[in-house]
Amino acid sequence: MAIEVRIPTILRTYTDGAKSVDASGATLQALIDDLESNHSGIKDRLIEGGQLRRFVNVYVNDEDVRFTGGLETELSDGDQVVVLPAVAGG
Amino acid sequence: MRYDGLLASVGNTPLVGLPTLSPSPDVRLWAKLEDRNPTGSIKDRPALKMIEMAEKDGTLRPGCTILEPTSGNTGISLAMAASLKGYRLVCVMPENTSEERRQLLRMWGAEIYSSPAAGGSNEAVRVAKQMAEEHPDWVMLYQYGNPANALAHYEGTGPEVLADLPEVTHFVAGLGTTGTLMGVGRFFREHKPDVSIVAAEPRYGELVYGLRNLDEGFVPELYDASLIDARFSVGPRDAVRRVRELLEAEGIFAGISTGAILHAALGQAAKSLKAGERADIAFVVCDGGWKYLSTGAYEGTVDQAEDRLEGQLWA
């Protein structure tokens, strides 16, 4: 199962500069564990105390996972996951 | 309708149906035309309310200087109100915002301090906070954390939508300062809790997310996730596509951020249609397209427009 994960500039040190990488997992938690196995250290930048870090936003098919079950959000083949730092708008 | 002066005419905007873009008689879309406010954007509501509340509690006194980090619309609204009320206004604005916004600000007498493009509004907030420390006598209204921002929508936008559309099922708005969604969200939680509150958040080019480290991230102090039900990230391509659709199908000439909001609203409409549920989806038209003509979003192909918006703060 291949899911494209878009990596923000600030975390590309963990992906050898790659803007997007493939990973797999039936849930976001499993996907992040799989990411960690290939890109050691990235998990700690995304998760703190079993939750997404405050300034990290993750979107599955453009929807913010905090409203779809958080780390338990289910994933399917072909989904697109985007990771972005939280920044000011307005 | 008659008002004593321009400031009194803020709000009470029309809610218009979208007969062409609504997918069925049971799933309907409604546009709240906030471009009909005095300076042409929804920000007239929070700007005026923030000034009024600050006057009331004594923070803002005659002759004061107001300081505000803004990517444009809030600054323009504040500039108009400040000039009528005799305050000086200093705006901190990211340099990658449209020229029209700068000209409008200057027209209404505001002074502009440009903050670096990298980091977008984050950087503007940081610079403004620093300036506030250097000038303790200046009044920073601070739209990201000022309860008056959300209050303007709790007292105005929300009740107006409910009065015009008692059968409303969804409310969709942009997420920037979060003021609109927090105010309208709280209003509906209290008065019609079955209404779903949907956020559309603009997704910019990489430059805007160029933080030095994740701890520099920013979540507006006003934000309370329990007041919204879904949050979508919308990129420039979908925003441009939808803003053009709105013009072609319904004749509404809106700013680019409205395209992002319409994208989320149409997504919800498709979902409701598929589920066989009735839906009356009200969404916000934040402003007209005038201020964004120079961005190139309205000309040529969608590909070209997307390229031109790269690196710009288009919402």
Explain what you see:
The complex is a heterodimer of chains A (90) and B (315). Chain A is α+β, with helices and mostly antiparallel strands and 90 residues long. Chain A has one domain: Ubiquitin-like (UB roll) (Roll). Chain A has two helices and seven strands, in the order ββααβββββ. Chain A has helices spanning 28-38, 42-46, and strands at 3-6, 20-23, 47-48, 51-52, 56-60, 63-64, 80-85. Chain A is globular. The model of chain A has no long low-confidence stretch (mean pLDDT 94). Chain B is an alpha/beta fold and 315 residues long. Chain B folds into two domains: 6-36 and 153-309, 3-Layer(aba) Sandwich (Rossmann fold); 44-140, Rossmann fold (3-Layer(aba) Sandwich). Chain B contains nine helices and ten strands. In chain B, the strands form two sheets. Chain B has a six-stranded mixed β-sheet with strand order 1-2-10-7-8-9. A four-stranded parallel β-sheet of chain B has the order 5-4-3-6, sandwiched between helices. The longest helix of chain B has 20 residues, at 256-275. Chain B is globular, with a radius of gyration of 19 Å. Chain B: Pyridoxal 5'-phosphate binds at residues 73, 176-180, 257. Chain B: Homodimer. Chain B: It comes from Nocardioides mangrovicus.
